[in-house]
Amino acid sequence: MRPDTPRFRFSRQADLHRIDDDGGTSSTSRLGIMADYDARLIDLYDVDNPDGADHDLYRALADEVDARSIVDLGCGTGSLTVSLAGRERHVLGVDPSVTMLNYARSRPGAASVHWVNGDSGGIDVRDADYAVMTGNVAQHILGDAWPRTLADLRQALRPGGVLAFESRNPEARAWESWKLDDRTVRDTPHGPLTEWAEVSDLNGNGEVTLAFHNVFEDTGDHVVENLTLAFRDRERITRALVAAGFDVEIVWGSWIRKPFQEADPVMIFKARRQ
């Protein structure tokens, strides 16, 4: 996996299809509206996205607010989710991908988490102390779904509850580093995997579209992950949070809590429900 690539996160925004031998495409829809991830790619997720400084910060914030009820929206394979559980905590992991959640449920410690297949509308708590969206999940939530998601999270939190998440700074133009013309090949448990990416430039809506190509050489399967990411600046995100009923306490520009500056590649928001 290339550094800071956005694949695998918040799959309801991804359209996955397989390129057939004749050059056509086929899709497997889930719940009638989307295609889910190829399980072979999910097997690589934790290798490509290991536990690190981002998870350390989100765990520390949970401890600092003495969280007893936690929501992890867009929990993916559950790496962070299960590490938040225990210590008399109620942890809810929510993700639209059945394949992701099946993987999460197989983790050691998964029984201590309540797993829900869905988006923010599937959050069934109303008194959470803490909610997180990690892995740049916020960027995968587009259009009217973005304010609706923030409203759902506000409803899930108790008054004074904390919401924390990160989003890439559009000023850093991260998508330019994802334009990879060269194909790379790596060994996986499913045999050699050839990968490359096609990336658009930022459009007028502040969005970038991507197509990640994955060819499993042993079978010839060519799986394409198509997704769109929203690049919102600090002011735009702050306005959305305030409109949803949050106060923005701080925005960091690094995982060691350095105050955000305009050139920083990431914006880490800590907001509190009004």
TrEMBL record:
Q: Which residues cross the membrane?
A: none
Keywords (A to Z) from UniProt: Methyltransferase, Transferase
Return any one Pfam family short name.
Answer: Methyltransf_25
Which SUPFAM superfamilies does this UniProt record tie to the protein? S-adenosyl-L-methionine-dependent methyltransferases
**MF (Gene Ontology):** methyltransferase activity
Gene Ontology BP, a term: methylation
Q: Which residues form the Methyltransferase domain?
A: 70-161
By what name is this protein known? SAM-dependent methyltransferase
